[in-house]
Amino acid sequence: MKQFLFIMVLMLLVGCSANATPGTPEDNASIGDQTESENASKENENESNQEETQDLFDQYQPNPQVTDDRTLKKVGQSYEDEKGEATLKGYKDVNQTYKVGPIELTVKEMKWIHLRPDYSMIDYFHVLTHDEEFDFAKVFVEIKNTSSETVNFAPIALLKTSTGETMDWEKDIYLEELNGELEGNSTKFGNLGFIINASERDHGHGEEEEHEQDHQEKSLEWIEITTSDVFDENQKKIADAQKIKIEF
């Protein structure tokens, strides 16, 4: 009797195994088509983002004080115009959007640039550094107010770097009016940049050279942005600031 039951159970298991056949070619093809469709959708989305970013770069009017760096995409590339010569030392294609209350802050790209200003531009930078050439970190951003109300916002209220420096919004070298009032359902875009590895103005000559040498040995590995809070027209805070760390 036990032998008979064993044989019956074995036959049932064999029958179940035979029925559990793998997906038909049509099913497998359907899965493959779905995967290809998802991959194509992601590729189209990436292409759309790249086209949108390029469109913003095309619309951007070069800064009157800082050399135009839009063509610099590979480390080591240089570009020279009447404002000076810029050499790319680091590049990150970011394309990330961050929500700060009703604000959508999109960081398009981050660059680390060595700038040798034209002699006619040196006085402009002397407020921040007396070096005749220097490095700076910059980001190209887009700011959207998704609400119908006017708000006040600064994309970078504070900037920290891996080189150990901290700077506030007043040290921005581009001054493209990205801080402040933003009307409902409107957009701003442009650059913000901050001099790094700069010599201190109040050092003696020997100390200055040593200080400058120490800074030159440091590489820029990341920056940390702290946005401002978001305020309404009555200066009432409606959203807290956000910290954003971007690595090369």
Topology summary:
Elements: H1 2-19, H2 25-59, E1 78-81, E2 84-100, E3 103-117, H3 122-125, E4 134-145, E5 151-153, E6 158-161, E7 166-168, E8 180-182, E9 187-196, H4 205-216, E10 222-226, E11 230-232, E12 237-239, E13 243-247
Description:
It contains four helices and 13 strands. By secondary structure, the chain is an alpha+beta fold. The chain has a five-stranded antiparallel β-sheet, with helices on one face. A hairpin with a 4-residue loop joins β6 and β7. The model is unreliable at 2-7, 9-21, 200-208 and 210-215 (pLDDT under 50).
What number is the mean pLDDT? 83
**How many beta-strand elements?**
13
User: Unreliable segments (pLDDT under 50, ≥5 consecutive)?
Assistant: 2-7, 9-21, 200-208, 210-215
* N-C termini distance: 74 Å
Strand content: 35-45%
- Total helices: the number is 4
> Order of helices and strands, N to C?
HHEEEHEEEEEEHEEEE
Give the biggest sheet.
5 strands, antiparallel
Could you say which structural class the secondary elements and strand pairing correspond to?
A: alpha+beta
